[in-house]
Amino acid sequence: MPSWRERPQxxxxxxxxxRALLLxxxxxxxxxxxxxxxxxxxxxxxTFLARAALSISKPxxxxxxxxxxxxxxxxxxxxxxQDMYRxxxxxxxxxxxxxxxxxxRKERMWALQLIxxxxxxxxxxxxVSACHAPELxxxxxxxxGFSSFSEDMKSAEYILLFxxxxxxxxNGGRRASSHLIGKIGLLSWLQIICTRRPITETFPVAAxxxxxxxxxxxAVVASLRNEYLLKPSLMDxxxxxxxxxxxxSMLTESEKGYGSNTLLIAGQTxxxxxxxxxxxxxxxxxQCPKVHPSGLTLQESMDxxxxxxELTSNFHEYPGVLCDLPCRLGVGLGDKTIGAExxxxxLQRIAEAAVNDCLTSTxxxxxxxxxxxxxxxxxxDSDSATGLARILLSSRSQYQRCKDVASLWNTCIKVFxxxxxxxxxxxxxxxxxxxxxx
Length: 438
Prior knowledge:
Blueprint (H helix, E strand, L loop, with lengths): L6 H20 L16 H13 L8 H9 L17 H5 L6 H18 L3 H9 L2 H13 L5 H21 L1 H12 L1 H10 L3 H4 L3 H20 L6 H22 L5 H26 L6 E7 H11 L9 H7 L2 E2 L4 H23 L4 H18 L4 H13 L1 H4 L3 H15 L7 H13 L1
Parallel strand pairs: 1-2
C-alpha cells in the first residue's frame, strides 16, 4: 500500500514490537523458560501501544512528536521496543521537557489517562511503582495550583490526578493500598491537601472537590479492607481526615448536581472510619480518644445530621457514628451553650430512632456522648437541664428495653437532676425514677 500516508509510522511501531517479541523468544533458545507462545502484554503496555498507534500517524496530534521521538530514540537491538513489561514513556511525558506549558500539560494528561484507563490489577501496580509514578503524581498536585491555566483547566487536571490515584486503590489490591497508605502516607497527604489553605481557594470548582471526596472515601475503604494497615498509628491519620471530609461535603452540598451524592459519600466515609477504629480496638486493644483536637465540633455534627436527614434510610445510623468518633470540645460559655443544644438535638434524634426500633448500640453510643459532654462542662443551666430531662423522661419506656441502655439512661437522668430546680416536675420525676432503680 504505497499510498498509505501513515504507513511508515505504523510500520515503525509494529517492527519495534516484532523485534521485542523475537528478543523475548531468543532469551531461552531451548524454549523451557520463555513466556507463552502467544505473548500476554500487561494492560498498561497494550493500552499505550494502541493509543500510540493513533497518535503517531496524525501529524496534527499533540502527541505526534513526543511519541515518534520515543520510538526513534533508541538503536538498542535494532530499535526493538524496550518496555514490553514496564510502563512505557511515563517519565518522558509526565515530566515533559516542552517549553510550551500547554504542550507539557497535554503530555501529562495523556500519560495520566493512559494509567487511569489501562490500570487493571495488582500486576499493573508493580509497573507504575517501579518508575515511582505514584510519588510523582502526588507531588504534582500542588504544582497544578501554581499554573497559569484557567480554573476549569486546573480542575480537569485535579480530577484526573485524583481519579488516577483512586484507580490505584480500587484495582491495585493490597499491594497498592499497602504501598500508598502504609509507606507513602496517602492519608496524611490528603489531610495536608485539605487543610493547608482554605479548601475553596485550593479547589474553587465543585467538580474537583467532589473528586477529592471520592478519593478520600476510596482510601479509607481500602484501609479498612487491608489487615496489614489496621494499626494504632492509622487511627491518628484517620482522625485528621474526619473534619476535612465533612467540610468538603458541606461546601459541595449546595452545588448543583453534587449535593446529595457528596453528603452520602461523606457519611459512608465516616462509617468506614468508625469501622477501622473499632477493628483496631479489637486487634490491638487501643482505644481512640473520645476528645481529640482534630475531632468534629458539636456544631459541625449537628449541621451534618440536619443536612443528611432526608437523604438516606441510614440516617438513624449517623448519630451513633458521629458520637463514636472523636469530638472537639471547647471551654467557653458559647461552647457550653452549643453543648446543651447538641445534647437536646441528639437526644431528640435518638428518641425518634427508638420509636422506630433502631439499633440499641446507637442509643448507647449517643447516651455515652451526652454524659461525656455534660461532665466536660460540669452540667448545664437549670433551663437546659430541665429540657434535656424532659426528653429523657418522655421516652423512658423505649430506653428500658435493654438493661445496658437503661443503666446509661439512669446515669443521664442522675447527671441532669443535679442542676434541676428542686421544685420542678422533672426533678421530682427524676428522683422517683432513681429511687425506684436503687
